[in-house]
Write a structure and sequence with these properties.
Rossmann fold, RNA-binding, eight-stranded mixed sheet, HisRS-like_core, BirA Bifunctional Protein, domain 2
RNA sequence: GUGGGCGUAGCUCAACGGUUAGAGCAUUGGACUGUGGAUCCAGAGGUUGGGGGUUCGAAUCCCCUCGCUCACCCCA
């Protein structure tokens, strides 16, 4: 095979592409009900934006970005996530000067150079939702609630919302010092990865699958928050309770991007292998000021669209089934193709889904095609009359040539088959 | 970046180192000269991912390479 889609990318064909539209429109409708508005931003940005926003030491920036120089030598990077771009446009357009709360959502492909595996691609899709301008814990709750509503609107019952607070930069760094000190005494018993992590990413040690059991004695971050972070976290939990949202505290939940602080959350499902997260997010109160804007708190999440699709599909493959629609027009006589052609376009102009075929194939195979492609009607044009067949019921009726207008009106939805 | 599994028809997969590489589904035609969802018959469809080696003989064994896939790392 000469040409293939590059590694980690893929083509989305019908009926999957139709499923994408169904899911996307649900997400959009839900976000808009919550008062969020759509933004579209570039697929690539100046590399510096991501280095600043996401953090120079994160895995994303260190080894996963698609970075290149354009013809003028500018360093550009295909976006590995959306929050940095959103923050950039927020500052660039001066929205930080506005004192209200700004609520946006976006959808688009993201790019990360990783080894593909189940539910993970090099080009993948995020549906992101962000609220800027308030540090109110209610806003954190609102976003988590939107996550819950979204997932439930796809009839997914088996899911879990994890929450945690990673505090602000002050209480977090104090905790890390404390944790690091304690771990130093026992790290020899830990796995190889943890011995490395203890210096590079201390918090990750807590999340290790192998050494999980060893961590019971260690202090947890959410117990070591400063008073104001602690109060914020309590209010988030209170708000979740008010809305009857089930959550589970996960002291080991740590996000991999530097801009997060305080509330972080993740929604996991058991559908894709062993509990995979399909969305993750949190608060980022320093990001806007870090990018040169007026200090503006923010909170948001990104949903892995591809993963959501997989979950929705494995939960209910029938969601792709749609009712029969439109009409397929054909004639066994090549001399009548002109008429077939004319009627097809006439029906299209009347707003009906209409299709015909100019291949010289048997009538039988054409009906087969129409059936397979989920058409509702099959109209056969003969020399002396025409036959309209309802492909759902199998019922059919003969019409005289003079009744053509009647058939067209009927098909475009203004009559029944009488 | 590390480690496992796998590449045979459009798809899912057979074929102990031994005739001309098969089957199901899908596709095309026919039985049914003007009709789908069922059945039967027939046709078309392949450089066994690519290259090299071992052998009288390779889809099968060995090496290289490309690709896919799963897991780790990390993330959505």
């Amino acid at each position: 095979m000469e040409y293939r889609a590059p590694r980690g990318t893929r083509d989305i064909l019908p009926p999957e592409s139709e499923g994408w539209d169904i899911i996307l429109s649900k997400l959009t409708v839900r976000a808009e009900e919550y008062g969020y508005k759509k933004v579209i931003f570039p697929t690539f940005e100046h590399t510096e934006l991501f280095k600043r926003g996401i953090g120079e030491d994160t895995d994303i920036v260190q080894k996963e970005m698609y970075t290149f120089q354009d013809r003028k030598g500018r360093w550009l990077t295909l976006r590995p996530e959306g929050t940095a771009s959103l923050a950039r446009l927020f500052v660039e357009k001066g929205i930080d000067k506005f004192n209200g709360v700004s609520k946006y959502y976006y959808f688009g492909s993201m790019f990360r150079y990783e080894r593909p595996q189940s539910g993970r691609y090099r080009e993948f899709y995020h549906f992101g939702v962000e609220a800027l301008g308030s540090d109110s814990p209610y806003l954190d709750v609102e976003l988590i609630s939107l996550c819950k509503d979204t997932v439930e609107s796809f009839a997914i019952k088996d899911y879990l919302i994890y929450i945690n607070s990673i505090g602000c930069s002050e209480c977090r760094s104090q905790y890390i010092l404390k944790l690091g000190g304690l771990l130093k005494q026992v790290i020899a018993y830990y796995c190889e990865d943890c011995r490395r992590r203890v210096t590079t990413n201390t918090l990750r040690v807590l999340d290790c699958k192998i050494d999980k059991h060893r961590n019971a004695e260690l202090p947890i971050l959410s117990d070591n928050l400063c008073p104001s972070c602690s109060q914020h976290y309590d209010e988030v939990k209170k708000g979740l309770q008010t809305l009857n949202i089930n959550w589970q505290e996960n002291p080991n939940l740590v996000r991999g991007l530097d801009y997060y602080n305080r509330t972080v959350f993740e929604l996991v499902t058991p559908y894709l292998g062993e509990s995979t997260s399909i969305l993750g997010g949190g608060r980022y109160d320093q990001l806007i000021s870090c990018l040169g804007g007026k200090e503006t708190p923010g909170v948001g999440f990104a949903l892995g669209f591809d993963r959501l699709y997989q979950v929705v599909y494995s939960n209910n493959p029938d969601f792709l089934n749609s009712p029969r629609k439109g009409v397929y027009i054909s004639s066994p006589e090549t001399g009548l193709w002109d008429k077939v052609f004319r009627i097809t376009f006439d029906l299209r102009n009347r707003g009906l889904k209409a299709e015909c075929n100019y291949q010289n194939r048997s009538l039988k195979s054409q009906v087969k095609t129409a059936d397979k492609d989920n058409y509702e009607f099959f109209l056969t044009i003969f020399q002396k009359d025409m036959v309209l067949k309802n492909l759902t019921t199998g019922e059919e009726k003969v019409y005289e040539n003079e009744e053509e207008e009647k058939v067209l009106v009927l098909l475009s939805g203004k009559g029944d088959m009488s």
